[in-house]
Design goal:
It comes from Prunus armeniaca. The chain is an all-alpha fold. The protein is built from five helices and no strands. Helix 4 packs antiparallel against helix 5.
Length: 94
């Protein structure tokens, strides 16, 4: 996706997440989730899906913050609230 604009990335999220995010990062996040999980027998695919959902949520916030028109961008207080919701959602699942 070299030489593309943010509009292309907006269209790519979530379907092409793997092409946007470093796959090593996703794997590392899954490994951390597995090591800190109370359910050590959880399915790796399920954890990967949860990790991808978290990353998609974060990327969507980042893309909204990068909107071309300032009026379309999120206010920082909304960003903090949304990031807190993401954190709560993805830490409660353990």
């Amino acid at each position: 996706m070299a030489g593309t604009t943010l509009v292309v990335y907006q269209a790519a999220v979530p379907e092409q997440l793997v092409e946007i995010v470093d796959p090593v990062l996703v794997q590392e996040m899954v490994q951390v989730e597995m090591s800190t999980s109370n359910h050590r027998n959880e399915n790796n695919a399920r954890l990967r899906m949860q990790t991808e959902e978290c990353l998609i949520s974060i990327l969507e916030i980042g893309l909204t913050c990068s909107a071309e028109l300032p009026g379309e961008r999120l206010d920082i207080s909304d960003v903090v609230a949304q990031m807190s919701q993401i954190r709560k959602k993805h830490t409660v699942q353990h």
